[in-house]
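Request: How about a record?
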Amino acid sequence: MPIKMPGKTKINNGIFNIVIYVLLLFLAVIMLYPLLFVLSASFSDPKAVAGGEMLLLPVRPSLEGYRYLLQYKEIWAGYLNTVFYMFLGTLLNLAATLPCAYAMSRKDLKGQKYLMIFFMITMYFSGGMIPGYLNIKSLGLLDTRSIILINGLVSTFNLIVARTYFLTAIPWEIQEAAVIDGCNDFQIFGKIVFPLSKAITVVMTLYYGVGRWNSYFTEMIYLKDRGKFPLQLFLREILTKSTFAKTAMADGMSFSAEQMMALIKQADTANMIKYGVIVISALPMLIIYPFLQKYFEQGVMIGSVKG
């Protein structure tokens, strides 16, 4: 027989559900509003956006910003550079992180504890920006694509996540059986462990890929050739121009009439295209994420629940 719930319990559950739904709706609005605002602003008159006339829906809709973007060759070159850095860089990240994490998960690895301590030290201490720059310069890697690809090749946090996955999701007995069958370490990883690690591979791909896609600081330090700049550096440049123009005019800096007109034109151009650049830079990640979400959830949750 079904258990009947007391009336008071039903009321309490109903109130609880209402509160949860309201909170979730509130959080959804908070997260969606910036996305919708940027999307609407990219189709709006930049002066209306700058003047605070737009709240959500486009004001005086226009495609002028996107038309200008199509003519801005550097942005599209930066887009291609970002795609290159993301795809090749992420492959290198996976090629370095997953085998290393697998090795650190092996029970028969001697000195595993000390190696793990060595890796974890790098999470809290680094050589510093200036020594790092001098080191890269001495290696002849300044202003090369190679430094962008190999810099940060292994993230210790990602290494720990992958190691935990291998420890908890891949039975040690399978690996022992493979050894009995004559497999060496490379064969065990390549033919057994890696094919069973789709979830964590997708998670690592997402972590590294998003990091690569959004990266600009490393490129700003080590690259001088604008032909090698990623999209995010051009986006930063556009936003900086817009901010500088506003600050200069607000502070009452002295400019000639020609300089003032050039500054105003620069600010208008930056305002016109900056939201469009944000849209096209965020769009690939927004499209890819839903397809990877199920693997992402599986990979992150592995090892977090014991029982």
Summary: The mean pLDDT is 81. The radius of gyration is 26 Å.
